[in-house]
């Protein structure tokens, strides 16, 4: 039975500090690791899977530890406590990390942390190139300066909480049988992750992004975007690609959708894919259609969540739609 996030992607389970440090360094970066309590026995685990430019990890140490990676240089980290707590320092900032306050690190700031023995972490490693590329799309221009996030992120409520809960849910679902790491889903997930991180977590571009979002796209562009998606719902539409097709900043387009349709672009795209699947099943031949293949083709990487979302949207299961 799978009990930990990403457990089917176990990288190692070790009681040896040198082995733990070496194996983690290969996946993340070179770092110093020490057990803070001489009487405590290290019982470290790491589960890890790579998408495209994002690495998803689950980490626990089983003992209080001090970790010093220094500057990560080539990647950002979103680090969240599922259990336990810690004190994280980056540059001149210090944060008491917990289940309600996660950490977002920046590549050029020296990082070090002390973690309690009961710590269980979700750790998302995000390539610098991906973050810079998404920021460029959001701004409609090259960023110019390196991106620096505020270290602590409050996820106790509001949009940050919803973003964080979705992130954890997606990571947990990847550890369940019956899921697929579909490339279509991976690309959308990575853009969704980074776009929301840039918008929700304060950084040195937050004011520019807020100014763009303050001028929502007009209703005619929202209508045009809707027409584009419905004309080809199976295309790999994302907020940034849709904004690019219309020649409008993604932040303005998202604001326009929120104002004129009452939902964000990623939510709209998900609903449209479900809507297209409904019509496919409604008019399909039960003897020729496999629901698992339909879900996979339409970019739903977890058939359990696909069936759940479908049922919640249409009031019946996919199988019922197909067979009536």
Describe this structure in words.
- The chain has 324 residues and is of the alpha+beta class.
- The protein has two domains: 7-128 and 143-156, Jelly Rolls (Sandwich), CATH 2.60.120.10; 215-323, Orthogonal Bundle (Arc Repressor Mutant, subunit A).
- Helix content is 43%, strand content 21%.
- The chain is built from twelve helices and twelve strands.
- The protein has helices spanning 17-27, 128-139, 158-173, 183-200, 206-213, 219-231, 239-246, 250-260, 265-282, 291-297, 303-314, 318-323; strands at residues 10-14, 32-35, 44-50, 54-60, 65-70, 75-83, 86-90, 93-97, 101-105, 111-115, 120-127, 152-154.
- It has a seven-stranded antiparallel sheet.
- It is globular, with a radius of gyration of 21 Å.
- The mean pLDDT is 91.
SS-derived structural category:
alpha+beta
What count of domains describes the coordinates?
A: 2
Radius of gyration: 21 Å
What's the total count of β strands?
12
CATH superfamily of the largest domain: Jelly Rolls
The rough form would be described as globular
Distance between the termini: 35 Å
Q: Give the CATH class of the largest domain.
A: Mainly Beta
Report mean pLDDT, rounded to a whole number. 91
CATH topology of the largest domain: Jelly Rolls
Counting DSSP H or I runs of 4 or more residues, the number of helices is 12
What is the CATH architecture descriptor of the largest domain? Sandwich
Helix fraction bin = 40-55%
**Largest sheet report:** 7 strands, antiparallel
Strand order of the largest sheet: 1-3-4-11-6-9-12
Keywords: DNA-binding, Transcription, Transcription regulation
Pfam families: AraC_binding_2, HTH_18
Domain HTH araC/xylS-type: 223-324
Protein name: Helix-turn-helix domain-containing protein
């Amino acid at each position: 039975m799978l009990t930990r996030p990403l457990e089917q992607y176990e990288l190692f389970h070790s009681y040896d500090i040198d082995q733990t440090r070496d194996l983690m360094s290969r996946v993340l970066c070179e770092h110093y690791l020490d057990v803070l309590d001489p009487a405590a026995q290290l019982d470290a685990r790491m589960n890890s899977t790579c998408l495209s430019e994002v690495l998803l990890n689950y980490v626990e140490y089983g003992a209080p530890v001090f970790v010093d990676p220094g500057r990560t240089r080539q990647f950002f980290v979103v680090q969240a406590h599922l259990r336990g707590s810690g004190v994280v320092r980056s540059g001149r900032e210090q944060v008491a990390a917990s289940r309600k306050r996660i950490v977002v690190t920046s590549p050029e700031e020296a990082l070090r942390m002390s973690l309690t023995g009961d710590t269980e972490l979700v750790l998302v490693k995000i390539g610098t190139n991906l973050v810079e590329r998404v920021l460029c799309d959001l701004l409609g221009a090259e960023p110019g300066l390196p991106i620096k996030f505020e270290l602590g992120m409050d996820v106790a409520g509001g949009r940050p909480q919803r973003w964080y809960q979705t992130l954890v849910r997606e990571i947990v679902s990847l550890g369940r049988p019956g899921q697929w790491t579909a490339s279509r889903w991976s690309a959308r997930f990575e853009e969704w992750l980074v776009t929301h991180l840039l918008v929700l977590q304060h950084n040195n571009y937050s004011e520019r992004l807020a100014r763009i979002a303050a001028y929502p796209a007009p209703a005619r562009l929202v209508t045009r975007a809707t027409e584009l998606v419905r004309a080809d719902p199976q295309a790999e539409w994302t907020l940034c690609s849709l904004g690019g097709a219309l020649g409008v900043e993604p932040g303005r387009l998202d604001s326009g959708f929120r104002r004129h349709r009452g939902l964000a672009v990623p939510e709209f795209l998900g609903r449209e894919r479900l809507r297209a699947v409904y019509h496919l099943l409604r008019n399909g031949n039960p003897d020729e259609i496999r629901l698992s293949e339909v879900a996979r083709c339409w970019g739903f990487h977890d058939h359990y969540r696909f069936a759940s979302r479908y049922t919640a949207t249409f009031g019946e299961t996919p199988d019922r739609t197909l067979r009536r």
